[in-house]
UniProtKB/TrEMBL annotation:
Residues 106-163 form the COS domain. The keyword Coiled coil applies. Residues 298-337 are annotated as: Disordered. Residues 277-480 form the B30.2/SPRY domain. This is FSD1-like protein. SUPFAM superfamilies: Concanavalin A-like lectins/glucanases, Fibronectin type III.
Length: 496
């Protein structure tokens, strides 16, 4: 088989492999969507039953309220009429008795007795309840003020339907910006993205954005996984996510609109490139007295009292004792032969730089005494070599042991820097152009710039003695580096 045919077959195999990955991601996405569909169906069904139960409960409560009002009014009127009825019966009985007494008085023949009885009748008539009782009803049987007509409400119930779902927004890719480890996502509302959706989509109250890191450039494959980070209650059509660590090649974003409790469909996911230099510490080759934990390195002497600053007085009592253990006595010799040992309290980064621009930052811990940070050719450093003391390493050295000093070192030459000790140092390395710069990030000051011809892969390199450092990686080259690079290149041009 000819080489050309083999190459063509390899391309076909590569294409088929990519298609296989795409189909696997697609099937995983379909499977996840089916599972999500069942979950969402159960959720909205439960929400519907809850809303209907609230309607029933509200209707029952309102019916009970209206019934109570009618009962109260009936009881009030009934009590008043019952009172009138009782008073009327008593007045009628009194009137009948008085009438009978008056009829009997007419039969009296004795004039004196008749006049006496007539006078009594007159007095009783004046005081009779029948003549003091009002014959006007205090209440009527009319209850028309409680007539109801719920036809409008019934019509409203007939119109009950699901909330109008907002349309799907569209991510505005040209408006998305990735800079200084922040991602600004911009999108167009559904009414702008598709005019036909205006009549069918509901109002929008706010937006939700989800994002996740991935190394897939294919948005479908990248969106197939779980663990989306969520940002809620966005009132604008853009949002900025800051403080990200770019330890993946891409960030996939998607957005959807919400109104009340109804959420629309997510937009098509978009993968935004977030390449940055991310590395860890090569713990296996670190000096035995350096403790590597995550992004932090601390110096922890293993029973070597000579390192303790509090024992300086004891060191001076004997010239034969050294404040730093000799290589032959260092605990590093008991570890693997590739560990740094002796006075080289060094640890390297685990990622090489072979070209392009890279940036990371270092912050000393509160109890630090001395540290160095820079780059080196991995092969140029022996187990006992210190940074800046050979031609294959470049570093910035800071110390506040005995006296405060800040300097840069390369090829066993040191240059003192007249600047306060920085608390946040940025390291910029352009392997292709041979630029190595150290920045005081808090004061935005260029501390020093090395110009070299890097002819081997470089690794980040660190030395820590007494105290510790923490390193931030996954950082893009910040925009403020532009001004430092322009200044450095201008000075280089003048020097030529």
């Amino acid at each position: 088989m000819s080489p050309l045919t083999q190459e063509a077959l390899r391309r076909i195999i590569s294409t088929l492999s990519s298609k296989n990955e795409e189909l696997e991601s697609f099937l995983e996405s379909v499977d996840n969507t089916l599972t999500g569909l069942q979950d969402e169906s159960c959720k909205v069904m439960s929400d519907l039953e809850a809303e209907l139960e609230l309607l029933r409960s509200t209707l029952e409560d309102k019916g009970a309220e209206l019934r109570d009002i009618i009962r109260e009014e009936t009881q009030r009127k009934g009590a008043e009429l019952q009172n009138q009825l009782s008073e009327g019966k008593f007045a009628l009985l009194s009137c009948e008795e008085l009438l009978a007494f008056a009829n009997n008085t007419l039969a009296i023949t004795d004039e004196e007795e008749f006049l006496k009885a007539a006078k009594l009748i007159k007095e009783r008539v004046t005081m009779a309840p029948a003549f003091r009782l009002s014959t006007r009803l205090t209440a009527s049987e009319n209850m028309s003020q409680f007539t109801v007509d719920f036809s409008g409400e019934r019509a409203g119930l007939q119109r009950l339907h699901f909330l109008p779902v907002p349309g799907t927004p569209e991510i505005n890719i040209p408006g998305c910006v990735v800079r200084d480890n922040t991602v600004t996502v911009s999108w167009r509302p559904a009414c702008d993205a598709n005019a036909a959706d205006v009549t069918t989509s509901g109002p929008v109250e706010h937006y939700e954005v989800e994002y996740r890191k991935t190394n897939h450039s294919n948005s479908l494959a990248a969106a197939g996984g779980a663990c989306w980070e969520k940002i809620h209650d966005i009132r604008d059509t853009h949002v900025t996510v800051s403080g990200l660590k770019f330890d993946s090649d891409f960030v996939v974003v998607r957005v959807r609109a919400r109104n009340k409790s109804a959420a629309g469909e997510f937009s098509e996911p978009v993968a935004l490139e977030t390449k940055a230099f991310s590395f860890g510490f090569e713990a296996l080759t670190a000096h035995a007295e350096l403790k590597v934990q995550g992004d932090t390195v601390t110096w922890e002497p293993q029973g070597i009292k000579g390192h303790d600053p509090r024992l300086r007085g004891k060191e001076n009592k004997s010239s034969s004792r050294s404040g730093t253990p000799s290589p032959s006595k260092s605990s590093g010799n008991r570890a693997g032969r590739e560990r740094f040992t002796g006075e080289s309290y060094t640890v390297l980064g685990d990622q090489e730089m072979t070209g392009g621009c890279h940036y990371w930052e270092l912050c000393p811990l509160l109890d630090w005494k001395s540290f160095s940070v820079g780059v080196a050719y991995r092969a140029s450093l022996g187990r006992f070599d210190q940074l800046g003391k050979n031609g294959g390493s470049w570093c910035l050295h800071a110390s506040q042991w005995l006296q405060t000093s800040l300097s840069v070192k390369h090829n066993n030459r040191a240059k003192a820097l007249d600047w306060p000790l920085p608390q946040r140092i940025g390291i910029y390395c352009d392997c292709s152009n041979g630029d190595l710069m150290f920045i005081d990030v808090d004061r935005l000051r260029l501390l020093h710039a090395f110009k070299a011809k890097f002819n081997q892969p470089l690794v980040p390199a660190f030395t820590v003695w007494c105290g510790g450092i923490t390193v931030s990686t996954g950082l893009q080259v910040p925009t403020f580096m532009g001004s430092f690079l322009s200044t450095s290149r201008s000075l280089s041009n003048l020097a030529q």
